[in-house]
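Handoff note, outgoing to incoming analyst
You'll be picking up this chain. Sequence as last confirmed:
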Amino acid sequence: MGRRRQETRRIHRWARWIIAGLASVGAFGTAYLTVVKVMGADAACPTAGCDRVLASPYAEIFGFPLTVFGFLAYTSMIVLALAPLLVKLEANPSLHKQLQTWTWPLLFIGALAMSVFSGYLMYLLAFEIQAACLYCITSATLAVSMLVITLVGRVWDDLGQLIFMGVIVAVVTLTGTLAVYAPINSGASQAGNTPGEVGPAITTTSGPAEIALAEHLSAVNATMYGAWWCPHCHDQKQLFGATAAKQIPYVECAEDGQNSQTDLCRSKEGITGFPTWEINGQFYPGTMSLEALADASNYQGLRDFQN
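Most recent structure output, in case you need it:
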C-alpha cells in the first residue's frame, strides 16, 4: 500500500513535466509541417501519405494550415503545464496554489479537445484520405498520452464534475469540428457521382493574362502531368487561379485520382516527378512560373500575371 502511494506521488510530481515534454514534441512537429506546407516542400516521411494529407482540403482551416492551429494548441499545453512550476512555492505560495488549481482543468480541457479532434482526423485518414501519415498518427498519440497523464497526474476531488465537463468538451469539440469541415464534406458529396480523389480547391483568382496563357497552352497541346495529392501540383494551379486552372490541359496520374490516366503517365519516359509539363515535345519537371511557361510555349499575349 505504501509503495503504491509512493508511485502515485511520483507521477504527481512529474506529470506536468511529462505533459510539457509531450507537447514540445508536438509543437516541434507541427512547426516543421507548417514550414513544409508554406514552402510547398515535401515532408520527410517514409510514405507518400504525409504529402497527400498536406495537399488535401482537410489540411487547411479558414485559409490557414491546420498545423498552425496544432502548433498553437501544443504551445498552450506547454504554458499551462509549466506555469505553476515557474512560480516557486516558497516565493509566492498563494500564486503557486492558484496556478495549480486553475491550470489542471484547463490542461484536461485542452488534452481532451485535442484527443477528440485527433480522433476525427484519424477517421478522415482511414476512410476519406486513405493514406498513412506518420506525423498525424504521432500527433494523435501525443494528444491521448497528454490526456492520460492529465487524468492520473493529480487527485481529482469531484469525478462527477470531471466527467460532466468532459462530456461537454467532447460534444462541443466534435460539433465544432464537423461544422468547420462541413463545406468540404458537402463538396465531396456533390462530386460523389464522379469516382476518384480530387486535390484541394484553388483559392486564387485568375486575371486576363492567366486565362489567356491557359487558353494558349491548350491550343498548342501542352500538358501538365500531376497527382491530386501533390502539393507542388496544387501550387502550379494556384499560379493560374481558379478560372484558368480549369482550362489548362491537365492529366491526372494518381491511380486513385479523378479521371486518372495512369497508363498514359507511365508511358511518358520524361516524367520523373510531379508536376511535369510537356510542351512542344520537351519535358519540364517541377512547378514553373507563368513567365517560364509563356517562354517555353512561345506565348505572345498579355504577361501582367497577378499570381
